[in-house]
Design a protein that fits this description.
Length: about 300
């Protein structure tokens, strides 16, 4: 049957009318020449009201009634001006639209050389829901890959990557920085005496207390076992020592409740300083040396690597 035959055209119109996809044809001057009921339903309008309405008029109606296409704007005229910059720039355009009722549609616009436009709107709500669920799962997996499961702070991999990036920035700007290495004193005895569950409670409480002692943009993570690390960017030696001492005090002066026991837990802290010329491995070895000195000098104390060579 030829496309131009009246019978074919009639059948095509019948199919379009019962189709669940929305179809509309606009004139070259952007007025509604005709549309099916599915297209009307997207805008919550009657077919008779849609006939002859301009694109701008339809959008103003959606904006005023808060029905149909979601228009997140305070000024509809500014929104229309931005929309017109995108429309009719190419013979074909494909884009996604969300509605005020929560549905999503994939819109396509096809323009004839004479200027008439065919619009098709296909509902993709289920696909968008699945897309959102997939995105959430990916985000969750990404968080799990970068977060220590017990303490909910950065794990070693995430911490090292973050510090490497921040060290590069410090080097470019010639800013000082400090790495603090924390190790809980006699932690093995906590596990041996009170059990691993108590040890876990100590680690979680330690992480929570240290976080509260830091600035929002400081980098904090669990390196392994009972060892934690803090990276302080744009920090001079005096500030690094002050932060380390504050951490030491909030752990030493306030017992941690683990089950029925109240445990007095202390930490030894080693500090390494840099003006941006060091990498993470170098800083870690320096902080570890300072930490070893703090342990050797009696624990529950802070040592600065810069002082070891003096």
């Amino acid at each position: 049957m030829p496309f131009s035959s009246p019978q074919f055209q009639q059948k095509l119109l019948e199919f379009i009318e019962v189709c669940t996809d929305g179809y509309a044809v606009l004139t070259a001057d952007d007025k509604m020449l005709g549309c099916n009921q599915a297209f009307c339903d997207i805008f919550y309008q009657d077919q008779r009201k849609m006939l002859g309405i301009s694109f701008d008029g339809l959008m103003r109606l959606a904006f005023e009634e808060r029905k149909g296409i979601r228009i997140e704007a305070d000024n509809i005229e500014e929104w229309l001006a931005q929309a017109q910059q995108k429309r009719r720039q190419n013979p074909f355009r494909l884009f996604e639209v969300d509605l005020t009722d929560g549905r999503w549609f994939l819109f396509s616009e096809q323009i004839l050389p004479s200027g008439e436009m065919l619009i098709q709107a296909k509902e993709i709500t289920k696909q968008k829901v699945l897309e959102h669920q997939l995105y959430s799962k990916v985000a969750t997996l990404s968080e799990l890959a970068l977060t220590d499961e017990l303490t909910k702070v950065a794990n070693r991999r995430c911490f090292v990557d973050s510090v490497d990036a921040e060290l590069a920035r410090c080097q470019r700007n010639e800013n000082p920085a400090a790495l603090l290495l924390l190790d809980l004193d006699f932690f093995k005895s906590v596990n041996d005496t009170y059990g691993h569950q108590a040890g876990d409670e100590v680690l979680k409480a330690t992480a929570n207390r240290v976080k509260k002692a830091l600035r929002e943009y400081d980098i904090f993570g669990r390196i392994g076992g009972e060892e934690f690390a803090v990276f302080l960017s744009e920090t001079d030696p005096a500030t690094a020592l002050h932060v380390a001492e504050r951490i030491r005090v909030i752990l030493a002066d306030y017992p941690i409740k683990a089950g029925s026991a109240e445990l007095c837990v202390t930490t030894s802290i080693g500090i390494a300083l840099t003006h941006g010329e060091s990498n993470f491995e170098e800083l870690y070895l320096q902080a570890d040396s300072a930490l070893y000195m703090a342990k050797r000098n009696g624990r529950n104390r802070v040592e600065l690597f810069a002082l070891l060579s003096e």
